[in-house]
Specification:
The protein is α+β, with helices and mostly antiparallel strands. 35% of the residues lie in helices and 24% in strands. A 6-stranded mixed beta sheet has the order 8-10-7-11-9-12, with helices on both faces. Strand 4, helix 3 and strand 5 form a beta-alpha-beta unit.
Amino acid sequence: MEFDLIARIRDRAASRGDVVLGIGDDAALLQPPAGTLLVVAMDTLNSGVHFPPETAPADIGWKALAVNLSDLAAMGALPAWCTLSLSLPDADATFVDGFLDGFLALAAQHDVALVGGDTTRGPLSVCVTVHGLVEPGMAMCRDGARVGDDIWVSGSLGDAAGALAQWKSNGDVDAVLRARLDRPTPRVALGRALRGIASACIDVSDGLLADLGHVCRASGVGALVDVDALPASDALRATFDSEPRRQLQATGGDDYELCFSAPAAAQAAVLAGALQAGVAVTRIGRLDARGGVATLTSAGADWRAPTPGWQHFAA
Ligand code: ADP
Ligand code: MG
């Protein structure tokens, strides 16, 4: 059954000059430029765990690649190639066509070639591996943050979690929020622009405080975050009051924004890089030596998140 589907995928997948051999043989042959490091990341999306089962196939395709490109962005890598493992309940060509609409649209935006994969029968599940390139010494790792560095975040936080909260309560889901849940924007250009400027970087997938906590642990520092400084979209402000909104922004998942640290002296360079990448960045706090992630309101009151991080939406 898979062969028809694989032919469908092969016919639509674009290539690049550095793909010596793409879909069709036992394995792909790729030519990385001399003197660059290969950056590899993989993420799986399971139906009912990582996306609502009724999500449009094109949105599943988009998101499966987006969450992977977001990992490359957080490393400062330039995306190049990807592979795709598809587990499908049945050989549904309509699903695959829709899936490819979203997947290949995002791949084209980033000049990523789909060079291989696997197609099997099973519960709906999508696993993507992305391959990117970065110059030696230029990758942004989680362990480079230093006491005194500013903490920054890109774009806005909480939109995807807001959509999920609305979806779970069986109410109407705001279309702008829903689009942020279904079609996250990987901040690849920002990641590239921050090479040599940011001291550490992570993409926000499990919730800002949880992911910032990973950076703090890896770097041996603490963080003080002003929860009222967290950037919110107009759509989120219009749909949630301030306290539930803070919770969504601080602990909701699926944002796929970049959270990064940089020395205070690099502020102008951060802003210039963000301008060049065409994405807003907001300073949300500072790293300190106390350990852990502390949160205050702008009035200086202690604020405590109800849960440390997003648990996805399956109970
Ligand atoms: P094998 O038995 O050698 O693993 P497959 O029949 O699984 O071969 O795959 C045949 C070719 O199609 C391989 O080049 C593989 O990389 C590619 N392929 C299979 N599934 C996909 C997919 N979902 N997306 C992209 N390429 C795929
Ligand atoms: Mg195979």
